[in-house]
């Protein structure tokens, strides 16, 4: 039985954002499933944290019939790192322009412990939204896809960005880091630094969201890693 590809979205996003990628994966015979992280929600929703997100991913891993490959996008890299540790079902981790952190590290520290200019942080420091997402996340997408994606963005838990990794799956499991060379959210130099921890690196000439801007290419890359 072929492994299932579990797709883990990043901050502000949701599992439905992978629909174009899943369509391409289906065409080439790759089964996939998504999750919904609890650290993301509407403006009036109580948000979960990074550890809760990792539990969601862990549950998805355990629910798969057979083995799986787990892809984490951006912030999703934290959840897959934490969730996959000790799992015998995960054959590979794919970090898609994602935070690939070690034990004790946090996303906020990885950002230099400085709020990027495009973070819009709530007064109570509980959550944040993304300013100018058109340029930050979707600079290689068509106007139509960009407009559709922006409309689905939600608020993100800020405390989740400050919670340290306590379990490190990529130290036990083969990993691939996909560097996105036109990414305006995570600079290429930061991706390259984190990717040195991976078993291998692949480069795409894409923005932060290749599941929207280059779904066929990403599907083909993912299929080769299954």
Task: Describe, in short, the structure shown.
This protein is 32% helix and 19% strand.
What features would you describe in this structure?
The chain has 9 helices and 10 strands. The mean pLDDT is 96. The protein has 226 residues and is α/β, with parallel strands linked by helices. The strands form 2 sheets. It has a 6-stranded parallel beta sheet with strand order 2-1-4-5-9-10, sandwiched between helices. A 4-stranded antiparallel beta sheet has the order 3-8-7-6, with no helix packed on it.
Search tags:
32% helix, globular, 226 residues, Rossmann fold, alpha/beta, six-stranded parallel β-sheet, four-stranded antiparallel β-sheet, 10 strands
- Beta-strand residue fraction: 15-25%
Look at the helices and sheets and give the structural class. alpha/beta
Query: Helix and strand succession?
Result: EHEEHEHEHEEHHEEHEHH
Q: Describe the main β-sheet briefly.
A: 6 strands, parallel
The CATH architecture comes to 3-Layer(aba) Sandwich
- The CATH topology assignment is Rossmann fold
The 3D shape can be described as globular
User: What is the mean pLDDT?
Assistant: 96
| Domain module count | 1
Helix content: 25-40%
| Rg value | 16 Å
Low-confidence stretches: none
User: Mind telling me the CATH class?
Assistant: Alpha Beta
CATH superfamily: Alpha/Beta hydrolase fold, catalytic domain
Spatially, the strands of the biggest sheet line up as 2-1-4-5-9-10
Give the termini distance in whole angstroms: 11 Å
The tally of beta strands, per DSSP, is 10
Tally the helices: 9
């Amino acid at each position: 039985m072929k492994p299932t590809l579990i797709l883990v979205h990043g901050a502000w996003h949701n599992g439905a954002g992978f629909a174009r990628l899943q369509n391409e994966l289906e065409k080439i015979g790759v089964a996939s499933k998504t999750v919904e992280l609890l650290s993301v929600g509407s403006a009036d929703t109580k948000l979960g944290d990074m550890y809760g997100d990792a539990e969601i991913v862990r549950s998805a891993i355990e629910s798969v019939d057979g083995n799986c490959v787990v892809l984490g996008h951006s912030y999703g890299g934290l959840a897959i790192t934490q969730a996959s540790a000790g799992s015998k079902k995960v054959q590979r981790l794919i970090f898609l322009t994602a935070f690939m952190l070690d034990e004790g590290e946090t996303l906020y520290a990885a950002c230099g412990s400085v709020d990027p200019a495009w973070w819009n942080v709530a007064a109570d420091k509980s959550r944040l939204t993304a300013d100018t997402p058109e340029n930050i996340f979707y600079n290689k997408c068509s106007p139509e896809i960009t407009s559709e994606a922006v409309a689905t963005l939600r608020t993100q838990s800020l405390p989740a960005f400050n919670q340290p990794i306590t379990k490190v799956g990529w130290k036990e499991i083969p990993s691939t880091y996909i560097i996105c060379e036109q990414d305006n959210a995570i600079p290429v130099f930061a991706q390259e630094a984190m990717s040195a921890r991976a078993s291998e690196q692949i480069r795409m000439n894409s923005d932060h969201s290749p599941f929207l801007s280059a779904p066929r290419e990403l599907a083909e890359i993912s299929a080769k890693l299954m």
